[in-house]
């Protein structure tokens, strides 16, 4: 890994943390809030690619586990993991990784609808696949109830996926990162 | 902006090693998962409250944490009472509350830097997979440095865009924010390289 990659990983971990400063939106019937941080997870995946996005979220985990209150609402510390939201938090890493992996594969022909589909797959399907069973086990809820309760996040997450997709496509033109080996300063944009 | 939940006191709980406390938490979590019977839960509750007293943490200082806990636990308690009966509800919620309290105790009595060091030591076996401790430390300190800075950027970009009448357009916030981040990353990487930081694998 080049120094530049290390710095990208560090700065995106910081970005996810900074998005946590926007206040969370609690729901009365489910112990999981709506936050802007999943948007950061999607952005990390679709900007950095699989490896670096996974590392950025791993780094973020390390900081939260060490007791820094970096999750929305000033939440943090080891108490996050046995809590009901633990699975959604743990799911950020595979979600970002998958979004990154698929974005890399689709890079040459990345369009907003395609990026949207990728972000939905990672940011909703994968994230919920980890978060819902975790919620069911921790809160001893039937799986179907936990899933049903989590449905309320879908509209917000669709909006976030759409935002992440348009940002990723705009950024691909403004500052492309994913074609990893970029030796000189002017980016070699082979496509278009 | 101060980061961390740590509260300084002179107590045996504070001086215990971070590794021991984190291992203890892991053990308690496992134990409560395997033996969630009422006597065990009662004893564990008494022991947990005893540890808080030993750590000299005033109940008032727990108020923000308690609010957060209540907001998660009360709906759960009601849902369980309604679905599965009040006995199960008390047991489930008590077990969860105990784990959350114990984990909070670790965070309150251990400096984030000590916990980070412990976690870094625990991750040392990962060196075989190319995670070098030096690079990990560099990334951790960069992240910590950049959280407050990035919060400032969010505000700056937002102000600039509201002057242009774009305060309702999230793309007008995100794209400049990310470009700014990436540009800073390049400058920073050059500066770090110029100081001869060896980022490549030794192998």
TrEMBL record, chain A:
One of its GO terms (molecular function) is biotin transmembrane transporter activity. It is found in: Cell membrane. PANTHER family: BIOTIN TRANSPORTER BIOY, BIOTIN TRANSPORTER BIOY-RELATED. It holds the Pfam family BioY. The chain crosses the membrane at residues 55-72, 78-102, 114-137. One of its GO terms (cellular component) is plasma membrane. It comes from Melittangium boletus DSM 14713. This is Biotin transporter. Belongs to the BioY family.
Automatic annotation (TrEMBL), chain B:
The keyword Ubl conjugation does not apply. It is a multi-pass membrane protein. It is found in: Membrane. Its main location: membrane. Keywords: Membrane, Transmembrane, Transmembrane helix. It comes from the Bacteria. It holds the Pfam family CbiQ. One of its GO terms (cellular component) is plasma membrane. The chain crosses the membrane at residues 40-57, 69-86. PANTHER family: PROTEIN ABCI12, CHLOROPLASTIC. This is Transmembrane component BioN of energizing module of biotin ECF transporter.
